[in-house]
From TrEMBL:
Keywords associated with the record: Cytoplasm, Kinase, Magnesium, Metal-binding, Phosphotransferase system, Pyruvate, Sugar transport, Transferase, Transport
Residues included from the entire protein: 255 to 576 of 576
GO CC annotations on file: cytoplasm
Entry EC number(s): 2.7.3.9
The protein, known as: Phosphoenolpyruvate-protein phosphotransferase
Record keyword Metal-binding present: yes
Primary role: General (non sugar-specific) component of the phosphoenolpyruvate-dependent sugar phosphotransferase system (sugar PTS). This major carbohydrate active-transport system catalyzes the phosphorylation of incoming sugar substrates concomitantly with their translocation across the cell membrane. Enzyme I transfers the phosphoryl group from phosphoenolpyruvate (PEP) to the phosphoryl carrier protein (HPr).
Cofactor(s) the protein requires to work: Mg(2+)
A GO BP entry: phosphoenolpyruvate-dependent sugar phosphotransferase system
GO molecular function terms noted in the UniProt entry: kinase activity; metal ion binding; phosphoenolpyruvate-protein phosphotransferase activity
Compartment(s): Cytoplasm
Length: 322
């Protein structure tokens, strides 16, 4: 089965009815590149940059970050590489941060909140990202956005970094796309303010499920309640994909759901065309895409979205794949 899948490496992920689908990789750093290349990924959909310094005591400086980002871009010539700004806090704690003793880390100073609270650290990362943008198709992505003013502050800091680099005569891509993650329910319910400000969206189902269902994703005692098929979760995901289609803004899913072949037909039927996942899942998902007919799936998925009885939803989703 594995070698059969390997033969799909250079096959374009196109559905039976001719829809092109992009299968991108989630990575934690340049160390993952050999695996990304081995499966013929269409690019990097999520580079989790916090892994550059988790478990160390000092932050990587601008040059060290630049080298890591550039290495990924160089390895993926002409393919999109979406690099996410630091998503620290909660399940990705910084060494020096453990003493902070937050009452509720998942709801605390994490991700973009942390970056905006540490503008010096954030500016260092933004400068490194912009410098790397000269070497490929870099896109910058911001995690955990909920408020319009958070996006505006990020865009202002990016402009500030650009102004600095211009003054220093350092090359970068003036038109580097800036996107945001949709992983807080409030964001999925107020998409207009995201679409007006950003070039692309990526749905982080891991956190979106955690926050929609009010279950800590790292708490073993509630894992049985972590349900990607909860009707509320499905509404938020499909609403985001559909808004992207309607307004012509690219949307991807980069949470674990994108890499689970049990959900491939469901997401295709919702209109999703960009899936980002651990590289180990790319060929299995590609096999599902090659067997799918989205023209046939879309109306069936519309009916699933109207169901609110979990057992029926589950059964109908299982039938999509058969
Ligand atoms: C997500 O939340 O779905 C996601 C992709 O980000 P992370 O798992 O790194 O929080
Ligand atoms: Mg997340």
């Amino acid at each position: 089965e594995k070698s059969k899948l390997n033969r799909l490496k250079d096959t374009r992920a196109t559905t039976l009815d001719g829809e092109n689908v992009n299968l991108l990789a989630n990575i934690e750093g340049p160390k993952d590149l050999p695996q990304v290349k081995a499966v013929g990924s269409d690019g990097v959909g999520l580079y989790r940059t916090e892994f550059l310094f988790i478990g160390r005591d000092t932050l990587p400086d601008e040059d060290e970050q630049y080298e890591a980002y550039r290495a990924v871009l160089k390895a993926m010539p002409s393919k999109p590489v979406t690099i996410r700004t630091f998503d620290v806090g909660a399940d990705k704690a910084l060494n020096g941060n453990q003493g902070r003793n937050e009452p509720n880390p998942a709801l605390g100073l994490r991700a973009v909140r942390y970056s905006l609270a540490e503008p010096k650290m954030f500016m260092t990362q933004l400068r490194a990202l912009l410098r790397a943008s000269a070497h490929g198709r870099l896109q910058i992505m911001v995690p955990m956005l909920a408020h319009a003013h958070e996006i505006d502050q990020c865009l202002t800091l990016i402009e500030k970094a650009k102004t600095e680099l211009r003054a220093e005569k350092v090359k970068f891509n003036e038109a580097v796309p800036v996107g945001g993650m949709i992983e807080v329910p409030a964001a999925a319910l107020s998409l207009g303010m995201f679409i007006r400000r950003l070039s692309f969206l990526s749905i982080g189902t891991n956190d979106l499920i955690q926050y929609t269902l009010a279950i800590d994703r790292s708490d073993e005692s509630v894992v049985h309640l972590y349900d990607p098929l909860h009707p509320a979760v499905l509404k938020l995901i499909s609403g985001t994909i559909q808004a992207g289609v309607r307004f012509g803004v690219p949307v991807s899913v980069c949470g674990e759901m994108a890499g689970d072949p049990a959900y491939t037909e469901l997401l295709l039927g919702m209109g999703l065309r960009n899936f980002s996942m651990h590289p180990a899942h790319i060929l299995g998902v590609k096999q599902q895409v090659l067997r799918a007919d989205v023209g046939e799936l879309a109306p069936r998925v519309q009916r699933i979205l109207k169901m609110d009885e979990p057992a029926r939803v589950r059964e109908a989703v299982e039938r999509l794949g058969s």
